[in-house]
Each structure stands twice: as C-alpha cells, then as structure tokens.
Specification:
The protein is mainly β. It folds into two domains: 6-86, Immunoglobulins (Immunoglobulin-like, Sandwich), CATH 2.60.40.10; 90-333, YVTN repeat-like/Quinoprotein amine dehydrogenase (Methylamine Dehydrogenase, Chain H). The chain contains no helices and 33 strands. It has strands spanning 6-11, 14-15, 20-26, 36-40, 43-50, 54-58, 66-74, 77-78, 82-86, 88-91, 101-102, 109-112, 125-128, 134-136, 144-149, 155-159, 164-168, 174-178, 184-189, 195-199, 203-209, 212-218, 227-230, 236-239, 247-252, 258-266, 271-273, 279-285, 288-294, 301-306, 310-315, 320-325, 329-333. The strands form five sheets. It has a 17-stranded mixed beta sheet that branches. The chain has a four-stranded antiparallel beta sheet with strand order 10-33-32-31, with no helix packed on it. The protein is globular.
C-alpha cells in the first residue's frame, strides 16, 4: 500500500490563506517522525491533524491563487493531485468590520479602515478599481461600518461612533444624511429603495427620509454590529454576533416580526444572497471558520470558503466573491451571481 495514500476529496473547495481544509484520504500513513506533508502548489501547508482517513491542513501564504493543486507526500513519495481554489489578495492594511460593497456603476470595490470606536483616522474609505488599484476616497467618515448603495448609485455609510448615516456622492464627498441612530452599524435598502439601519444596542430603524425615522424591529443587542441584507423573499436578514456558539440568522418580515432563520453559528457577521436564494454568512460553524452557505429553504448549511477573521463578503457581476477579513480583502472566482449584482 502506498504510504502517501490518495486524496478522495477536499472540503471546502474554496479557501483563503490561513484557512483550514479537510482532506479525505485513502491509505495515508502519518509517520510518527513527521516524515509527511501536504503541499498547496509548491508550498508546504501546516498539518493540524492527520489520520489514515483524514487530514486537516492550513492553507499557507503563497504567491499562487485561483485553482491550486494539492498533494500529499510521505517518505519522499507524492500522491496524485487534487485541486482547490485559493483567494487572491487585493489589499491589506485595512480595518474592515462589515461587508465590502461593489459600486453598481463602475464595478469598484469599496472597503474601510474603520478604527476602534471614536478613533480618528486620516483616511477611512477606499476604492479598489477594477484594474486592482486602491485609492483613498476624499470622504472622511469616522468609524465607517455598514455600507450600501441606493438605486441611484450613491453610497451610504454608517458611523457607529456618533450614530450617523453619511451620503457619499459620486465625486466622493461626504454629506451628513441622518443622525441619532444609537450605535449605527448595519445598513440595507429594500426593493422599493427604503433604507434600514441597525443600532447594535437592539433596534432596527426604517429610514424613509432624514426626518422620518421609525423603529421597525427589535433584536437582542450585539457585542459587535448588526449585519443586514434583504433576501429574494423581501424579508430583512440580520446577524447579531454574540459570545455564544449557537447564534442565529434572523429574518424580519415587512411588519417587523422577527423569526430565527438558521442557528448554530459562532459570531455570524456579514451576509449576502445569490440569485438562487442561497445565503452566505461569515461565521464559525461546527468549529470551523469561514463563509457558510445556507440553502434556499434555510434547512441545511455547509462551509463554502475556509478562512480566519472573515467579517464580510459581496459578489461582483463577473461571479467573483469578494471576501473581507479584518485587515485584508481577497477575491475568489466562484461563478456565483449575487442577488444585487445586476
């Protein structure tokens, strides 16, 4: 029997550097002396655990991205190759606390350098152009958190330090839109263009205009932020990360009635739908970190992307998933069309 064994499958099929993937194997012999390894392309990954049937390996930092071959090695012999898709790093030296967003007009990706609450930073909003160049936007919003574009292509950003909403015009300048919203974090627009904003202390607001703001729904307070997205059924989906390992994704109907859509997550954060109605959530699930895919019925979930420190995601028109970790942004080609990537 071959000591190096053979790879049956890898789960999940997508990862960013540092993410742990589970490799199902046949006939692999993990020698006590450590004479075995797992390679991603030409770079050796760290093996977290190994047995004759299963290996848990961490995807290493490497130059390669996109489809990457994976093989096992034992006693100097290599097995046949399998493959996963590894995310490409787009930017670093950021501080992201919620979903990135894609500009519906020019396809740029908007990200933040948020800072701790109340911290003043010179540049807080950045644009990553389609050709990969990152530039600071002139708008200065303290502690930018949630972001969403309206149907006219203007960006709205929440400021959790002062409970404000800022409108960013097409020239990149900031204008105060509304305030008095507590610890304003998540933001989303419904199909009619009505804005909803989450105060992480326990309230979701409906914002019809700067002077017409009303409570829409109540949730348990979050230790971090509310993250929000509208689903294809018209309901508002919200995560409220806490300290438990069984947090839920909530669904809120048009009347403000709250129900639990799916539970069992550790610190669920950013979320986004695809056009098929599947929901993707940045969370810890069954002890593993990454992005989890929940099916259209809300009855089954699986890890879709492996990675640590992921706080948000969005989709581009080209079927790429943009993944925001705490300080970095990655892209992975998934051929998934996001619900709002029209």
């Amino acid at each position: 029997m071959k000591k190096e064994g053979s790879i049956v499958r890898i789960n999940p099929r997508f990862a960013i550097a540092g993410g742990e993937v589970e490799i199902e194997v046949k006939g692999f012999h993990a020698e006590p002396g450590g004479g075995f390894g797992c390679y991603f392309g030409e770079t050796r990954g760290r093996i977290v655990a190994a047995s004759a049937r299963r290996i848990l390996a961490s995807v290493p930092e490497m130059e390669e991205s996109g489809p990457v071959s994976v093989h096992l090695e034992c006693g100097g012999k290599k097995d046949g190759k399998a493959e996963i898709t590894v995310g490409r790093k787009l930017a670093e030296d950021l501080h992201i606390v919620a979903n990135p967003v894609v500009d519906p007009i020019d396809g740029s990706i908007i990200v933040t350098r948020s800072g701790s609450r109340g911290q003043e930073i010179d540049q807080t909003l950045f644009r990553i152009t389609p050709d990969g160049f990152m530039e600071a936007m002139p708008a200065l919003v303290m502690n930018p958190t949630g972001m969403a574009f309206d149907d006219e292509g203007e960006l709205f950003v929440t400021n959790r330090a002062d409970g404000q909403i800022w409108r960013i015009d097409r020239e990149g300048d900031a204008h105060l839109y509304a305030d008095g919203l507590g610890i304003a974090t998540g933001i989303a627009f419904d199909k009619d263009g009505v804005m909803y904003v989450g105060d992480r202390a326990g309230v979701i607001y409906r914002v019809l205009s700067p002077s017409r703001i009303a409570e829409f729904a109540s949730l348990e307070a979050s230790v971090a932020a509310y993250h929000m997205a509208f689903g294809p059924d018209g309901r508002l989906y919200v995560t409220s990360p806490g300290l438990a390992s069984h947090d839920a994704v909530y669904a809120i109907d048009a009347k403000g009635k709250v129900s639990k859509y799916f539970r069992g997550f550790g610190r669920p954060q950013g979320l986004a739908f695809d056009r098929e109605g599947n929901l993707y959530v940045a969370a810890c699930y069954q002890g593993r970190h990454g992005i989890v895919k929940i099916d259209q019925n809300g009855t089954a979930a699986e890890r879709f992307v492996s990675g640590n420190g992921i706080v948000g995601l969005c989709f581009t028109r080209q079927g790429r998933m943009i993944i925001a970790a705490n300080y970095e942004v990655f892209e992975i080609s998934t051929d998934i069309k996001g619900l709002l990537a029209v």
